[in-house]
Amino acid sequence: MKAVLELYQTERQVIGNGIMLDANEHYKQWVKVPGSALTGLNRYPDNSAIALRQKLAECYCGDGIQTENILITSGSIEAIDVLIAAYKPSALILNTPSYDVYKLRADAHGCSCELIPLDSSSQPQADRIIEKAKEGSMVVFISPNNPTGKLMDPALVRRVIKNSQGMVIIDEAYIEFAGLQNSMQSLAKEYPNVIILRTFSKAWGLAGIRLGYIISNEDNIRHLTPYRNAYSVNAVALTVGLHALDQQDELKIQVERILDHKSDLIYRFEHAGIAVHRTEANFIVLDIPDVHTVHQALRQKSILVRPRPLLGNLRQGLRITVGSPDENRAMFNAVLEALA
Ligand code: PMP
Fold it and tell me: Using an 8 Å Cβ cutoff, are 193 and 161 in contact?
Protein backbone atom coordinates (compact mmCIF):
# COMPACT_ATOMS: atom_id res chain seq x y z
CA MET A 1 0.00 0.00 0.00
CA LYS A 2 1.19 3.54 -0.72
CA ALA A 3 2.73 5.06 2.41
CA VAL A 4 1.38 8.57 1.95
CA LEU A 5 -1.89 8.84 0.12
CA GLU A 6 -2.45 11.64 -2.34
CA LEU A 7 -5.30 13.99 -1.42
CA TYR A 8 -8.11 14.76 -3.84
CA GLN A 9 -7.19 18.31 -4.82
CA THR A 10 -9.78 20.85 -5.83
CA GLU A 11 -9.26 24.33 -7.25
CA ARG A 12 -11.40 25.71 -4.44
CA GLN A 13 -8.95 24.59 -1.79
CA VAL A 14 -6.32 26.69 -3.54
CA ILE A 15 -8.14 29.87 -4.53
CA GLY A 16 -11.49 29.77 -2.77
CA ASN A 17 -14.73 30.67 -4.49
CA GLY A 18 -15.18 32.63 -7.69
CA ILE A 19 -16.53 31.72 -11.12
CA MET A 20 -16.57 27.98 -10.59
CA LEU A 21 -16.02 26.21 -13.91
CA ASP A 22 -13.76 23.53 -12.46
CA ALA A 23 -15.97 20.70 -11.22
CA ASN A 24 -18.55 20.07 -13.97
CA GLU A 25 -21.50 21.06 -11.82
CA HIS A 26 -24.63 22.83 -13.00
CA TYR A 27 -24.26 26.59 -12.52
CA LYS A 28 -27.44 26.76 -10.47
CA GLN A 29 -29.69 24.65 -8.29
CA TRP A 30 -32.64 24.32 -10.67
CA VAL A 31 -34.52 21.50 -8.89
CA LYS A 32 -37.27 23.07 -6.81
CA VAL A 33 -37.74 21.69 -3.32
CA PRO A 34 -40.51 23.12 -1.11
CA GLY A 35 -39.12 23.97 2.31
CA SER A 36 -42.06 22.10 3.83
CA ALA A 37 -40.67 18.85 2.33
CA LEU A 38 -37.75 18.87 4.72
CA THR A 39 -39.46 17.51 7.79
CA GLY A 40 -38.85 14.48 9.99
CA LEU A 41 -35.12 15.18 10.12
CA ASN A 42 -35.10 14.01 13.74
CA ARG A 43 -35.30 10.44 12.36
CA TYR A 44 -32.57 8.43 10.69
CA PRO A 45 -33.10 8.18 6.93
CA ASP A 46 -34.60 5.06 5.34
CA ASN A 47 -31.46 2.97 5.00
CA SER A 48 -32.97 0.98 2.12
CA ALA A 49 -33.96 4.18 0.26
CA ILE A 50 -36.90 2.21 -1.07
CA ALA A 51 -39.01 5.17 -2.24
CA LEU A 52 -36.20 6.67 -4.31
CA ARG A 53 -35.21 3.30 -5.80
CA GLN A 54 -38.82 2.61 -6.77
CA LYS A 55 -39.21 5.99 -8.38
CA LEU A 56 -35.91 5.72 -10.25
CA ALA A 57 -36.91 2.32 -11.58
CA GLU A 58 -40.41 3.42 -12.55
CA CYS A 59 -39.86 6.71 -14.18
CA TYR A 60 -36.25 7.19 -15.10
CA CYS A 61 -34.11 4.11 -15.65
CA GLY A 62 -36.08 1.94 -18.11
CA ASP A 63 -34.75 -1.25 -19.74
CA GLY A 64 -36.55 -3.47 -17.24
CA ILE A 65 -34.53 -2.07 -14.37
CA GLN A 66 -36.35 -2.65 -11.11
CA THR A 67 -35.99 -1.59 -7.51
CA GLU A 68 -33.84 -4.69 -6.81
CA ASN A 69 -31.36 -3.56 -9.46
CA ILE A 70 -30.59 -0.24 -7.76
CA LEU A 71 -28.40 0.72 -4.80
CA ILE A 72 -28.45 4.38 -3.69
CA THR A 73 -25.09 5.84 -2.64
CA SER A 74 -23.72 9.08 -1.26
CA GLY A 75 -22.59 10.27 -4.71
CA SER A 76 -20.71 8.08 -7.19
CA ILE A 77 -17.60 8.57 -5.10
CA GLU A 78 -19.08 6.38 -2.38
CA ALA A 79 -20.07 3.86 -5.07
CA ILE A 80 -16.43 3.64 -6.21
CA ASP A 81 -15.36 2.83 -2.64
CA VAL A 82 -18.14 0.30 -2.20
CA LEU A 83 -17.14 -1.48 -5.42
CA ILE A 84 -13.48 -1.70 -4.48
CA ALA A 85 -14.29 -2.82 -0.92
CA ALA A 86 -16.82 -5.42 -2.08
CA TYR A 87 -14.93 -7.01 -4.97
CA LYS A 88 -11.38 -6.43 -3.68
CA PRO A 89 -10.08 -6.34 -7.23
CA SER A 90 -6.55 -7.55 -7.89
CA ALA A 91 -6.20 -4.49 -10.15
CA LEU A 92 -8.30 -1.62 -11.43
CA ILE A 93 -7.96 -1.26 -15.20
CA LEU A 94 -8.43 2.38 -16.19
CA ASN A 95 -8.74 3.86 -19.67
CA THR A 96 -6.61 6.96 -19.50
CA PRO A 97 -6.94 9.87 -19.34
CA SER A 98 -9.53 9.11 -16.71
CA TYR A 99 -11.30 10.55 -13.66
CA ASP A 100 -8.66 10.89 -10.89
CA VAL A 101 -10.74 9.51 -8.05
CA TYR A 102 -10.58 5.91 -9.34
CA LYS A 103 -6.80 5.84 -8.89
CA LEU A 104 -6.92 7.71 -5.55
CA ARG A 105 -9.45 5.27 -4.09
CA ALA A 106 -7.60 2.26 -5.50
CA ASP A 107 -4.46 3.54 -3.72
CA ALA A 108 -6.42 4.00 -0.49
CA HIS A 109 -7.61 0.39 -0.67
CA GLY A 110 -4.16 -0.93 -1.56
CA CYS A 111 -5.37 -1.99 -5.00
CA SER A 112 -3.04 -1.55 -7.97
CA CYS A 113 -4.04 0.17 -11.23
CA GLU A 114 -3.30 -0.74 -14.84
CA LEU A 115 -3.47 2.38 -16.99
CA ILE A 116 -4.33 1.66 -20.62
CA PRO A 117 -4.40 4.73 -22.86
CA LEU A 118 -7.47 5.44 -24.96
CA ASP A 119 -6.68 5.30 -28.68
CA SER A 120 -6.47 8.36 -30.95
CA SER A 121 -10.28 8.31 -31.38
CA SER A 122 -10.79 8.35 -27.58
CA GLN A 123 -11.86 4.71 -27.67
CA PRO A 124 -10.73 1.89 -25.38
CA GLN A 125 -8.12 -0.55 -26.65
CA ALA A 126 -10.33 -3.58 -26.10
CA ASP A 127 -7.70 -6.24 -26.87
CA ARG A 128 -5.16 -4.74 -24.50
CA ILE A 129 -7.79 -4.47 -21.78
CA ILE A 130 -8.89 -8.09 -22.26
CA GLU A 131 -5.27 -9.21 -22.02
CA LYS A 132 -5.04 -7.54 -18.59
CA ALA A 133 -8.57 -8.32 -17.38
CA LYS A 134 -7.72 -11.46 -15.46
CA GLU A 135 -10.01 -13.03 -12.90
CA GLY A 136 -10.54 -10.65 -10.03
CA SER A 137 -9.69 -7.47 -11.93
CA MET A 138 -12.09 -4.59 -12.39
CA VAL A 139 -12.31 -2.64 -15.65
CA VAL A 140 -13.60 0.94 -15.55
CA PHE A 141 -15.19 2.69 -18.52
CA ILE A 142 -16.45 6.25 -18.19
CA SER A 143 -19.02 7.17 -20.82
CA PRO A 144 -18.99 10.04 -21.66
CA ASN A 145 -15.46 10.08 -20.33
CA ASN A 146 -13.97 12.74 -18.07
CA PRO A 147 -11.80 14.50 -19.30
CA THR A 148 -12.01 13.48 -22.99
CA GLY A 149 -15.79 13.88 -23.03
CA LYS A 150 -16.45 11.12 -25.56
CA LEU A 151 -18.91 8.22 -25.34
CA MET A 152 -17.31 4.77 -25.33
CA ASP A 153 -18.18 2.58 -28.31
CA PRO A 154 -20.73 0.07 -26.94
CA ALA A 155 -19.43 -2.69 -29.25
CA LEU A 156 -15.95 -2.39 -27.69
CA VAL A 157 -17.37 -2.26 -24.18
CA ARG A 158 -19.46 -5.36 -24.88
CA ARG A 159 -16.40 -7.18 -26.20
CA VAL A 160 -14.53 -6.45 -22.99
CA ILE A 161 -17.52 -7.51 -20.87
CA LYS A 162 -17.79 -10.83 -22.69
CA ASN A 163 -14.08 -11.56 -22.46
CA SER A 164 -13.25 -10.18 -19.05
CA GLN A 165 -13.10 -12.47 -16.05
CA GLY A 166 -13.76 -9.66 -13.59
CA MET A 167 -16.30 -6.92 -13.08
CA VAL A 168 -16.82 -4.12 -15.59
CA ILE A 169 -17.88 -0.69 -14.33
CA ILE A 170 -19.53 1.82 -16.66
CA ASP A 171 -19.59 5.27 -15.05
CA GLU A 172 -22.36 7.35 -16.66
CA ALA A 173 -22.03 10.53 -14.58
CA TYR A 174 -22.55 12.69 -17.70
CA ILE A 175 -24.99 10.49 -19.63
CA GLU A 176 -27.92 12.96 -19.53
CA PHE A 177 -25.89 15.39 -21.64
CA ALA A 178 -25.21 12.72 -24.27
CA GLY A 179 -28.83 11.50 -24.14
CA LEU A 180 -30.14 8.54 -22.16
CA GLN A 181 -30.51 6.60 -25.42
CA ASN A 182 -26.71 6.30 -25.25
CA SER A 183 -26.76 4.69 -21.82
CA MET A 184 -25.37 1.16 -21.60
CA GLN A 185 -27.62 0.32 -18.65
CA SER A 186 -29.29 -2.56 -20.55
CA LEU A 187 -25.94 -4.42 -20.37
CA ALA A 188 -26.42 -4.65 -16.60
CA LYS A 189 -29.42 -6.93 -17.18
CA GLU A 190 -27.72 -8.84 -19.97
CA TYR A 191 -24.40 -9.77 -18.33
CA PRO A 192 -23.62 -10.78 -14.73
CA ASN A 193 -20.42 -8.72 -14.48
CA VAL A 194 -21.69 -5.22 -15.34
CA ILE A 195 -22.17 -2.31 -12.94
CA ILE A 196 -23.52 1.10 -14.01
CA LEU A 197 -22.83 4.24 -11.94
CA ARG A 198 -25.03 7.33 -12.09
CA THR A 199 -25.22 10.59 -10.17
CA PHE A 200 -27.47 13.54 -9.41
CA SER A 201 -24.38 15.79 -9.33
CA LYS A 202 -24.18 16.83 -12.99
CA ALA A 203 -27.28 17.41 -15.14
CA TRP A 204 -29.58 17.35 -12.10
CA GLY A 205 -27.55 20.15 -10.54
CA LEU A 206 -27.46 18.54 -7.09
CA ALA A 207 -23.75 17.98 -6.39
CA GLY A 208 -24.18 19.43 -2.89
CA ILE A 209 -26.54 16.74 -1.62
CA ARG A 210 -24.22 13.82 -2.56
CA LEU A 211 -26.59 11.42 -4.29
CA GLY A 212 -25.76 8.69 -6.76
CA TYR A 213 -26.76 5.13 -7.54
CA ILE A 214 -25.53 1.81 -8.80
CA ILE A 215 -27.46 -0.28 -11.34
CA SER A 216 -26.68 -3.98 -11.62
CA ASN A 217 -28.28 -7.42 -11.41
CA GLU A 218 -29.98 -8.42 -8.21
CA ASP A 219 -27.17 -10.68 -6.98
CA ASN A 220 -24.56 -7.97 -7.36
CA ILE A 221 -26.74 -5.39 -5.62
CA ARG A 222 -27.27 -7.84 -2.75
CA HIS A 223 -23.52 -8.44 -2.52
CA LEU A 224 -22.68 -4.70 -2.61
CA THR A 225 -25.29 -3.45 -0.16
CA PRO A 226 -23.51 -4.32 3.13
CA TYR A 227 -20.37 -2.50 1.96
CA ARG A 228 -22.17 0.84 1.97
CA ASN A 229 -22.02 2.48 5.39
CA ALA A 230 -25.31 2.50 7.32
CA TYR A 231 -27.28 5.72 6.70
CA SER A 232 -24.62 7.07 4.35
CA VAL A 233 -27.32 8.73 2.24
CA ASN A 234 -29.00 11.35 4.39
CA ALA A 235 -32.70 12.19 4.61
CA VAL A 236 -32.34 15.57 2.88
CA ALA A 237 -30.68 13.90 -0.13
CA LEU A 238 -33.40 11.24 -0.33
CA THR A 239 -36.18 13.84 -0.19
CA VAL A 240 -34.57 16.16 -2.71
CA GLY A 241 -33.90 13.21 -5.05
CA LEU A 242 -37.60 12.29 -5.00
CA HIS A 243 -38.58 15.86 -5.82
CA ALA A 244 -36.03 15.98 -8.62
CA LEU A 245 -37.52 12.93 -10.33
CA ASP A 246 -40.86 14.78 -10.54
CA GLN A 247 -39.13 17.47 -12.60
CA GLN A 248 -37.99 15.51 -15.63
CA ASP A 249 -39.44 17.94 -18.19
CA GLU A 250 -37.30 20.61 -16.59
CA LEU A 251 -34.26 18.28 -16.72
CA LYS A 252 -34.63 18.15 -20.51
CA ILE A 253 -34.87 21.94 -20.70
CA GLN A 254 -31.81 22.37 -18.47
CA VAL A 255 -29.76 19.90 -20.51
CA GLU A 256 -30.73 21.65 -23.77
CA ARG A 257 -29.76 24.97 -22.25
CA ILE A 258 -26.31 23.74 -21.21
CA LEU A 259 -25.78 22.21 -24.66
CA ASP A 260 -26.73 25.56 -26.28
CA HIS A 261 -24.31 27.43 -24.03
CA LYS A 262 -21.65 24.85 -24.90
CA SER A 263 -22.20 25.30 -28.68
CA ASP A 264 -22.00 29.04 -28.22
CA LEU A 265 -18.68 28.75 -26.36
CA ILE A 266 -17.20 26.40 -28.96
CA TYR A 267 -18.26 28.78 -31.74
CA ARG A 268 -16.66 31.74 -29.99
CA PHE A 269 -13.39 29.96 -29.20
CA GLU A 270 -13.05 28.53 -32.68
CA HIS A 271 -13.74 31.92 -34.26
CA ALA A 272 -10.99 33.31 -32.07
CA GLY A 273 -8.65 30.67 -33.53
CA ILE A 274 -8.50 28.52 -30.36
CA ALA A 275 -8.78 24.75 -30.77
CA VAL A 276 -11.52 23.11 -28.70
CA HIS A 277 -12.06 19.42 -28.02
CA ARG A 278 -15.78 18.77 -28.31
CA THR A 279 -17.43 16.62 -25.68
CA GLU A 280 -20.71 14.83 -25.07
CA ALA A 281 -20.75 16.29 -21.55
CA ASN A 282 -21.13 19.69 -19.84
CA PHE A 283 -17.53 20.80 -20.33
CA ILE A 284 -15.14 21.68 -23.11
CA VAL A 285 -11.38 21.21 -23.29
CA LEU A 286 -9.21 23.93 -24.81
CA ASP A 287 -6.15 22.76 -26.70
CA ILE A 288 -3.77 25.66 -26.15
CA PRO A 289 0.02 25.67 -26.07
CA ASP A 290 0.61 27.25 -22.67
CA VAL A 291 -2.07 25.84 -20.42
CA HIS A 292 -0.18 26.72 -17.25
CA THR A 293 -0.02 30.46 -18.04
CA VAL A 294 -3.69 30.69 -18.93
CA HIS A 295 -4.65 28.67 -15.84
CA GLN A 296 -2.68 31.05 -13.61
CA ALA A 297 -4.15 34.12 -15.33
CA LEU A 298 -7.67 32.80 -14.73
CA ARG A 299 -6.83 32.03 -11.11
CA GLN A 300 -5.77 35.66 -10.66
CA LYS A 301 -9.30 36.63 -11.67
CA SER A 302 -10.88 33.94 -9.44
CA ILE A 303 -12.07 31.99 -12.48
CA LEU A 304 -11.70 28.31 -11.61
CA VAL A 305 -10.91 25.81 -14.39
CA ARG A 306 -8.73 22.68 -14.42
CA PRO A 307 -5.76 21.56 -16.50
CA ARG A 308 -6.40 17.93 -17.47
CA PRO A 309 -4.41 15.50 -19.59
CA LEU A 310 -5.29 15.31 -23.28
CA LEU A 311 -5.40 12.03 -25.20
CA GLY A 312 -2.00 10.39 -25.05
CA ASN A 313 -1.54 11.80 -21.51
CA LEU A 314 1.55 13.76 -22.49
CA ARG A 315 0.12 17.24 -22.86
CA GLN A 316 -2.54 19.04 -20.88
CA GLY A 317 -5.63 20.88 -22.05
CA LEU A 318 -7.78 23.28 -20.08
CA ARG A 319 -11.04 21.65 -18.99
CA ILE A 320 -13.79 24.21 -18.54
CA THR A 321 -17.29 23.50 -17.24
CA VAL A 322 -20.07 25.19 -19.19
CA GLY A 323 -21.44 27.82 -16.81
CA SER A 324 -24.08 30.56 -17.05
CA PRO A 325 -23.86 32.95 -20.01
CA ASP A 326 -22.31 35.64 -17.76
CA GLU A 327 -19.75 33.22 -16.33
CA ASN A 328 -18.91 31.91 -19.80
CA ARG A 329 -18.43 35.44 -21.13
CA ALA A 330 -16.10 36.40 -18.26
CA MET A 331 -14.08 33.20 -18.72
CA PHE A 332 -13.90 33.63 -22.51
CA ASN A 333 -12.64 37.20 -22.22
CA ALA A 334 -10.08 36.19 -19.58
CA VAL A 335 -8.73 33.37 -21.76
CA LEU A 336 -8.41 35.69 -24.76
CA GLU A 337 -6.66 38.30 -22.64
CA ALA A 338 -4.25 35.70 -21.25
CA LEU A 339 -3.40 34.50 -24.74
CA ALA A 340 -3.01 38.00 -26.23
N1 PMP B 1 -17.57 9.99 -12.06
C2 PMP B 1 -17.11 10.90 -12.91
C3 PMP B 1 -16.68 10.48 -14.27
C4 PMP B 1 -17.00 12.25 -12.53
O5 PMP B 1 -16.49 13.15 -13.38
C6 PMP B 1 -17.41 12.62 -11.24
C7 PMP B 1 -17.34 14.04 -10.73
N8 PMP B 1 -16.48 14.89 -11.31
C9 PMP B 1 -17.88 11.63 -10.39
C10 PMP B 1 -17.97 10.33 -10.83
C11 PMP B 1 -18.27 11.94 -8.97
O12 PMP B 1 -19.61 12.16 -8.88
P13 PMP B 1 -20.38 12.32 -7.50
O14 PMP B 1 -20.56 13.77 -7.26
O15 PMP B 1 -21.67 11.61 -7.76
O16 PMP B 1 -19.60 11.64 -6.43
Answer: yes
Q: Which atom of ligand 1 is nearest to the CA of 73?
A: 15
What is the 102 CA–ligand 1 centroid distance (Å)? 10
- Asked whether 201 lines ligand 1 (CB < 6 A), one says yes
Q: Per-residue pLDDT tens for 305-334? A: 999 999 987 799 999 999 999 999 999 999
Q: What is the CA radius of gyration of the chain?
A: 20
Q: How far is the CA of 225 from the centre of ligand 1 (A)?
A: 20
- Report the distance separating Cα 247 and Cα 255, nearest Å: 12
Ligand 1 pocket check: which of 11, 143, 199 to mutate, most ligand atoms within 8 Å of Cβ? 199
pLDDT digits (tens, 9 = 90+) for 301-313: 999 999 999 998 7
The CB of 279 under 6 Å from ligand 1? The reply is no
Is the CB of residue 111 less than 8 Å from the CB of residue 85?
A: no
Ligand 1 nearest-atom number relative to CA 200: 15
Distance CA 247, CA 131 (A): 44
Ligand 1 touching residue 212 (CB < 6 A) = yes
CB 211 less than 6 A from any atom of ligand 1: no
Q: How far apart are CA 195 and CA 139, in angstroms?
A: 10
> What is the structure's pLDDT at 263?
98
How buried is residue 4: exposed, middle or buried, by Cβ count under 10 Å (0-12/13-18/19+)?
exposed
| pLDDT 10s digits, 152-176 | 999 999 999 999 989 999 999 999 9
Q: Tell me what the pLDDT averaged over the chain comes to.
A: 96
State how far the Cα of 154 lies from the Cα of 32, in Å rounded to an integer: 35
Q: What is the pLDDT of residue 139?
A: 98
Whole-number Å distance, alpha carbon 272 to ligand 1 midpoint, is: 31
Given a cut of 80, whether residue 2 has pLDDT beyond it is no
Total residues found in the chain within this entry: 340
